[in-house]
Write a structure and sequence with these properties.
Chain lengths: 344, 256, 281
């Protein structure tokens, strides 16, 4: 799944091949660039770093990049904790907080965020449950709600819905299914009543007859900081400069991403060029003409300059602690290093 | 009841094993069958007991078996064939359980045969706790319990050491004196044949045919008193068998 | 001795045999046998735990790669304090007992059929060989559709996991029943059902029971997989949650619970063997 080697020569070679395969001018060998490994999931929301690498924004910072693909966020966090990779981007999960508590990783910036003006995550109901009266998230009392694992962002969303709608969290029955495809299968077959998910998946689901949209997550959670950028504590303390250069490169990638998919201010050719880069990692199993619209569909905003909504992060941490999913002693300082990006 | 074998022929595939065996076992008579290894003795016994069908020929029963015989043709096996998970008593009971003869009668029969085979005090022992001789006693008790018309015994004593064998032969004669069962008794051991057989059938090497039948008219219980006569018969049997045995031994076995 | 005459070290040739010096035959038969050492296993275990604890305390074992044993013990104690242990245990034990019992009962039935009837053997045994190696975890998505995300799919996973090894153990056991015992039964005119009940099944029982050891271990292994889907409680669900939260102390506590469960099951089967196979020793 991911390579464990830390031998820099090997890193150089692979990143050289990578850059070459992306068809880019590769001049790093001359100034002995630093090599960083970035963990990604094959989701559109991970494309800013792909774009930054493809357009040479990391190269401008003197960074060679190697991407390491993961199937799930959890092993990516563990790989950062063990210094096998350097940077990653995922939702705040119990696993992430536990590793932060052990002093292994830190959140250094914000990524995906719910904003009122952009289509965000949707709350879905199975058709049978909808027909039986589950027409709004406020009526989730007594219903089952699919999550991947306990302490996942889905679990958080379910409880925030309960809080806002004004019923007890325990009135929603949380059903862990481990993987997103399993949740989808259970929702489609009506074995669970409800779920919440990013708009592109939600859109695909509600096209079919089995699933109905009943609400938006942004109505229940204010300015939800869905995913964050994080790195190892070692990088934060010993390689501040590296972190800064990474974030600088990433920021330019984020701008291109937002322009291409969220604000749609780029020309068709530019979007196509960007999608070409992203396609190397996202929907790579599909031909370009099929993948391109899927990559663009339902993209959510990623914070400019990786700004971080501290209030939302704190709310999430409090929720984890109130549910006893993470130790009570974890502080915001354990979890976040605020020196690198603007926070609010 | 008398048992009559008429022109039994048997072959396994192309290999003839038995040719033209005609023989009878009279009521209360012990017929010993001797012959070189692989001549078809066990096969013959399986055919007699209805465990195998002969290629041609018939095994006939003439007259009725005793009214209380539960299993007219009953085997005693060389390897005892005791169920290791049943006690001595349980092993005897096994063959009575399928017959609807009532609990008390089963109990009575078991007690009786265990007493006759001097096993009463071992009723609760498991086969693994018993010596070979004791195991064969259990097998004999089991056979006696169904009150057979004919006992079919395939080298019943050959797994035992010679002292135990002698003791068991005495026991068998004592049992036979009490209840005159008939038996077809297969053995390699000529001393056994001479000690136990009213008639001794000598078979040739494979394909087995009857070479000779030797009759001994000294009553079983008196034979220890005639050492010279029995020794002479045994020598005669050995002379008959020696060449067959030598030839059989040098034969290449094409099976197993 | 006379052959040794040419060797300088040999005894003087003039000595009479009776007068030769005597010495004991050296003992050469030591080693290569096992003696029971009752205290060794607990000592090794304790020593490992202590080394592990020291390693964790000194930081030699990093706190993200393994929790200290005391931390795992603390997580275990938490389970007892909060009473959650009983919820997890009862949920898992229910799934294990129902799934394993049904799986082994069906397995014995099919195994006997294959062992006794040549038609069943011809029809079923290739099927069993084909289906046995399929990892049941791979079928989990199908099980969810077939049996739902409730207890059905969990019990079914364990059921299928214990079914196949039992089938194979059972018909292997039937095949290995001493033919001479069956012939003996036939020669005494025992009915077919008596032969099966009194000779074949007891004869196959040792093999069936050792099949139980395997199927029970497989059932425990599959518990985690079975509880991946929609399980709120259960030791497997607890371990999965600990993994998702990267709570490695709870993870180790959960794994220790599984080991204990395995030991308990092995002990129970050992007892059953003692009871049912007492005749063997
Ligand atoms: N089921 C069988 N199928 C094929 N051949 C067989 C079978 N049973 C026995 N034979 C062969 O038939 C021949 C006679 O066998 P049998 O066991 O009757 O001999 P035996 O006289 O009892 O020998 P032994 O003195 O060694 O007990 C042997 O060559 C044996 O290999
Ligand atoms: Mg034989």
């Amino acid at each position: 799944m991911f390579k464990m080697t830390r031998r820099t020569t090997l890193r150089r070679m692979t990143s050289a091949m990578l850059a070459a395969s992306l068809g880019l001018g590769f001049t790093a060998a001359a100034h002995a660039n630093d090599t960083i490994k970035i963990g990604i999931l094959s989701l559109t929301s991970h494309s800013p770093s792909i774009i930054a690498a493809g357009k040479g924004y990391f190269g401008e910072q003197g960074l060679d990049v190697e991407f390491v693909s993961f199937q799930a966020a959890q092993p990516m966090a563990v790989a950062i904790a063990s210094n096998d990779i350097d940077f990653g981007m995922t939702a705040i999960s119990g696993g992430l907080i536990s590793l932060a508590e052990k002093g292994a990783i830190k959140i250094i910036g914000g990524a995906l965020q719910e904003t009122p003006e952009i289509d965000g995550q949707k709350i879905l109901a199975a058709k049978a449950a909808y027909d039986a009266g589950l027409t709004s998230p406020d009526k989730l009392v007594g219903h089952s709600f699919g999550v991947t694992t306990q302490g996942s962002s889905f679990h958080y969303m379910a409880h925030k819905i309960a809080d806002k709608a004004g019923f007890d969290r325990s009135e929603i029955r949380i059903v862990p299914m481990q993987k997103v495809p399993a949740v989808i299968a259970a929702l489609k077959s009506g074995q669970i009543d409800a779920w919440s998910i990013v708009p592109n998946i939600a859109g695909a689901l509600t096209k079919g007859p089995e699933v109905v949209e009943i609400g938006k997550v942004s109505d229940y959670i204010d300015n939800y900081q869905v995913t964050t950028v994080f790195t190892s504590t070692k990088n934060v303390t010993d390689h501040k400069d590296l972190v800064k250069r990474f974030l600088a490169g990433l920021a330019k990638g984020i701008d291109d991403y937002n322009a291409a998919y969220v604000d749609k201010t780029l020309g068709a050719d530019d979007v196509a060029a960007i999608s070409e880069m992203v396609h190397k990692y996202v929907y790579a199993d599909q031909p370009m003409d099929k993948a391109a619209p899927r990559i663009a569909a339902g993209a959510m905003r990623i914070n400019r300059n990786a700004k971080l909504n501290l209030a939302s992060v704190e709310d999430q941490l409090k929720w984890f602690q109130s549910e006893k999913l993470v130790p009570g002693g974890v502080t915001m300082d354990d979890l976040v290093d605020t020196e690198f990006v603007e926070t609010f | 009841m008398e048992l009559i074998l008429e022109k039994i022929n048997h072959s396994y595939g192309d290999m003839p094993v038995l040719t033209d065996i005609s023989l009878s076992v009279g009521s209360g008579e012990i017929v010993c069958v001797v012959g070189p290894s692989g001549c078809g003795k066990s096969t013959l016994l399986r055919i007699i007991g209805g465990l195998e069908r002969p290629t041609s020929g018939e095994v006939l029963m003439s007259g009725e078996p005793p009214a209380d015989s539960l299993n007219p043709l009953t085997y005693v096996f060389q390897d005892f064939a005791l169920l290791p998970w049943r006690t001595v008593e349980g092993n005897v009971r096994l063959v009575l359980e399928d017959h609807r003869i009532g609990r008390e009668r089963v109990g009575a029969v078991v007690d009786d045969v265990l007493a006759r085979t001097k096993l009463t005090e071992f009723a609760a022992a498991y086969p693994r706790q018993l010596s070979g001789g004791m195991k064969q006693r259990v097998a004999i008790a089991r056979a006696l319990s169904v009150n057979p018309a004919v006992m079919l015994m395939d080298e019943p004593l050959s797994a035992l050491d010679s002292q135990t064998r002698d003791l068991l032969m005495d026991d068998l004669i004592e049992l036979w004196t009490q209840v005159r069962f008939s038996a077809c008794y297969i053995t390699h051991n000529l001393a056994e044949a001479v000690r136990l057989g009213h008639r001794i059938v000598v078979m040739s090497r494979r394909p087995g045919r009857i070479r000779d039948i030797v009759e001994i008219d000294i009553p079983l219980s008196e034979r220890p008193g005639f050492p010279t006569e029995t020794a002479a018969i045994q020598r005669r049997l050995w002379e008959m068998m020696r060449d067959e045995a030598r030839a059989a031994d040098r034969e290449l076995s094409d099976v197993a | 001795m006379s052959l040794d005459r040419s060797l300088p070290s040999a005894a003087p040739a003039t000595e009479k045999p009776g007068a030769a010096p005597t010495r004991p035959v050296p003992f050469r038969g030591s080693g290569f046998t096992h003696r029971p050492h009752r205290h060794v296993a607990p000592l090794v275990f304790a020593a490992l735990l202590i080394l592990w604890e020291i390693g964790s305390r000194t930081g030699f074992i990093s706190n993200i790669s393994l929790p200290a044993p005391t931390e795992a013990a603390e997580a275990m104690a938490d389970l007892f304090r909060s009473g959650m242990i009983w919820k997890h245990l009862s949920a898992s034990l229910f799934r294990l007992t129902v799934g394993w019992s049904l799986g082994t009962l069906l397995g014995i039935a099919v195994g006997l059929a294959i062992g006794l009837f040549s038609v069943a053997r011809a029809g079923l045994s290739p099927l069993v060989s084909a289906l046995f190696p399929i990892p049941k975890i791979a079928l989990l998505p199908l099980f969810i559709v077939w049996f739902g995300i409730g207890e059905g799919s969990k019990v079914a996973t364990i059921l299928f996991g214990s079914f196949f090894p039992t089938v194979i153990a059972t018909y292997g056991g039937v095949d290995n029943v001493d033919r001479s015992l069956i012939r003996m039964g036939q020669s005494f005119g025992l009915s077919w059902s008596s032969i099966v009940r009194k000779i074949i099944i007891p004869g196959a029982l040792p093999a069936i029971l050792s099949g139980f050891r395997i199927s029970a271990s497989i059932a425990i292994i599959l518990l985690v997989a079975a509880e991946m889907i929609g399980a709120e409680y259960g030791i497997g669900a607890y371990i999965l949650m600990a993994g998702a939260l990267y709570a490695i102390d709870q993870l180790i506590a959960g794994v220790a619970l599984l080991s204990l469960l395995g030991l308990a099951v092995a002990w129970l089967i050992g007892r059953a063997e003692k009871m049912l196979l007492g005749w063997r020793i």
